[in-house]
Every structure is written in structure tokens, then in C-alpha cells.
Specification:
Blueprint (H helix, E strand, L loop, with lengths): L2 H28 L3 H20 L6 H33 L4 H19 L9 H6 L5 H25 L8 H21 L9 H26 L8 H27 L5
Helix pairs in contact: 1-2, 1-6, 2-3, 3-4, 3-8, 6-7, 7-8, 8-9
Length: about 260
């Protein structure tokens, strides 16, 4: 993609993400639905990466202020999302009213902590995208930055995947983050209309999905550990462990293209 076109896309996409974030925040102030929390977390992740890709072009103070604000919101929304995943799984697997009730009570506590964090983002965010000049030099800096980040994400993924089964939980979570960032960056950098046909992007989506399934089942098992002594918990734990094992097999299949030598 030509450098100026890449720059224009980065600017347009940044303004769109800032608008989507504002809408997601407004929605979360009126509802505590799981979908609203999920959408908020997705746009936060995408916007953080978008700013990271364009860091040479944005006023450093704007980037730093947004990262501080977004980090606090992400940390507060993480426990809410974990309970939402566990509750959705329990409802789909006949978890029973006792287990559901206990987890819903815990979810309400962490939701109140998140609710206090739903403050507006730094006001200079959207203006920061619009104020970037469109000269060729700025586009070239962006192109180099995107290429550098993609190489970094590729190396991180290909280094961690062969050791996946030996990685501690936090390192496995970091691998999922690296895959997700690589996917988002790839989606941004591809020319319009090529996302659906890009082989690498399809492989990244498969790998991210499989890693997410494993992490979600691990979260379900942690949640079930908090409701010991209620009916059906032993059966539910067996089902969650079986599904986690199936997710690990899916990860092994999805990882194969990234472990072969040569271009991906």
C-alpha cells in the first residue's frame, strides 16, 4: 500500500475508533450487559494498538495520557469479562441456579468497581489523529513503524509457540495478546478488500480463536473453584477440562503453519 494512502487510512480509522469508544462508554453507563463490556474491551484493544502503530506521529503526551486511562479501564473490566464468560458457559451447560447465583453475585461486585472507571478518555484523542500532517515523510514513518511491529509480533509468536505446553498461564495469556495484536495490525495494513482472502490473516484468526477457547475454559475452571460444594460442580469441572483439552488440540493444529520454516 502506498505510504500516503496508509497514512490516510490510519487517520480515518483512528477517528472511527475514538467515536466507537465514546459510544461503547455511553452504552456501559446505561447497561451492565456482557456484550457491552465485551465491545468496550475490543475497541480499547484496537485503539491502543492503533496508537502504538502511529506513535511517531502523535504528540507523546496524548499517547501517554490515553495509555494510562485505558490501562485502568482494561484492568477493571477484565474480571467482569471473566465472570461473563463463566456465566455464559454455565448457562449453556446446565450449571444450575446455585452456581449461577453465586457467580452473578461476585460479578456484581466487580461490575461496581468497573462502573467507577467509566470516565471520558483524554479529550485530545480524536484531535490527535486529525492533526497529523499528510506529507510523504509522515506516511513513510508510519509504514516503517507498522513493519517493525509486525516483525516484533511475528518473532514473539514463533518463539513462544514451540514452548506453549511448558509456558506458565501468564505467558500463555501474553502469547494470545501477541497473536491478537498481530491480527489487528494485519487487518489494518492490508489493502481494502483483501482481508477475507489473506492466508496469513485466516491463520491468525484460527490461532487466536483456539487460544481464546483454552483461556476461557481455564477461566471457567477458576470460577468453578469459587463455588465448591454446590450441585453438579464435579460434572461441570470434568466438562470444562475436556473442552480445555480439545482447545489445546485445536491450538496444536492452528500453530503448525507458524512453526514451518519459510514465509508464512
Amino acid at each position: 500500500m502506498k505510504t500516503r494512502r496508509l497514512l490516510r487510512r490510519w487517520q480515518r480509522r483512528g477517528v472511527e475508533l475514538a467515536s466507537t469508544l465514546a459510544a461503547a462508554l455511553r452504552r456501559c453507563t446505561t447497561t451492565d450487559e456482557a456484550a457491552a463490556v465485551h465491545d468496550l474491551r475490543v475497541v480499547l484493544r484496537r485503539l491502543r494498538l492503533h496508537l502504538r502503530a502511529g506513535r511517531p506521529l502523535v504528540v507523546p503526551a496524548t499517547v501517554a495520557a490515553f495509555r494510562r486511562w485505558a490501562s485502568g479501564l482494561s484492568h477493571a473490566s477484565g474480571p467482569v469479562r471473566d465472570y461473563d464468560v463463566a456465566l455464559e458457559w454455565l448457562e449453556a451447560n446446565a450449571g444450575g441456579p446455585v452456581a449461577l447465583g453465586r457467580l452473578q453475585a461476585r460479578r456484581r461486585l466487580v461490575w461496581r468497581a468497573l462502573r467507577r472507571r467509566l470516565t471520558p478518555p483524554p479529550p485530545a484523542l480524536a484531535a490527535g489523529f486529525r492533526s497529523v500532517g499528510r506529507e510523504r515523510r509522515a506516511g513513510e514513518r508510519l509504514r516503517k513503524r507498522v513493519a517493525k511491529l509486525e516483525a516484533r509480533f511475528r518473532l514473539a509468536v514463533q518463539t513462544a509457540l514451540p514452548r506453549l505446553v511448558r509456558l506458565p498461564p501468564e505467558a500463555q495469556h501474553d502469547l494470545r495478546r501477541q497473536v491478537r495484536r498481530w491480527r489487528y495490525l494485519r487487518e489494518f495494513a492490508l489493502p481494502a478488500g483483501q482481508s477475507k482472502s489473506d492466508p496469513l490473516l485466516r491463520r491468525l484468526v484460527r490461532l487466536q480463536t483456539a487460544l481464546g477457547e483454552q483461556q476461557d475454559r481455564a477461566g471457567v475452571l477458576r470460577a468453578l473453584g469459587r463455588v465448591q460444594g454446590v450441585p453438579r460442580v464435579a460434572r461441570l469441572r470434568r466438562e470444562a477440562r475436556d473442552q480445555r483439552a480439545a482447545a489445546r488440540r485445536a491450538i496444536a493444529r492452528a500453530a503448525r503453519p507458524f512453526l514451518r520454516p519459510g514465509p508464512r
